[in-house]
Structure formats: structure tokens, C-alpha cells
Amino acid sequence: MHRYHKRPFHNLRHAVDVLLAATSLLRMVQQSSAVLAQADSSMVMALLTAAFVHDIDHPGCMNSYLVATNHPLAVRYSGRSVLENHHSETAVTLLARAELDFLCH
Fold it and tell me: Is residue 68 part of a domain?
């Protein structure tokens, strides 16, 4: 959990809040839709994982600031969807570590 920093907003509490909201929304949709009620477990796991890691390792500022200041993250991602790419890459990098890969089972 050290990848969520102690910030006023983009922190572990926010990640858990989004995860719980996604879980609640998923349950409501599944109850009202016969198609989504049959959602396979991999689709559900993808949704919940994305909800939890959506702001992982957030630096506490917006994309536009990172681009304007030529922050190393903005340079790395050519100024395009900087934070979104960073959050995704961080999550995938963590899952590549055998001791953190909860999907391997």
C-alpha cells in the first residue's frame, strides 16, 4: 500500500472508496440486467482491480501541470494521458511481481 501516498485526496482511502462504489454499482446493475448478471468472474475482477488502482502512485497534481513543467512522467508518456498511463503501468508492474500477483491462481 506504499504506492498510495498520504495526500488529501488521491490516497488509499479514496482507492477503497472507489472500490466500494464500483462494487455497489456492479451489484445494482447485475440485479437489474439479466445480461450483466451472467458476467464472468474475470470481467468482475478486471472492474474491481481497475477501480482500486485507478489513482495508484498519484503525484498529487494534474496532467496539465505535469506537461507544463516537463515533469519526467509527462516526458515519458509524451504528454498524453500522463497520469492514466502512469497508474496503469504502475499496477501492471506490481502485478508482475510474483508475490503480488493475485491473478495467477
Answer: yes
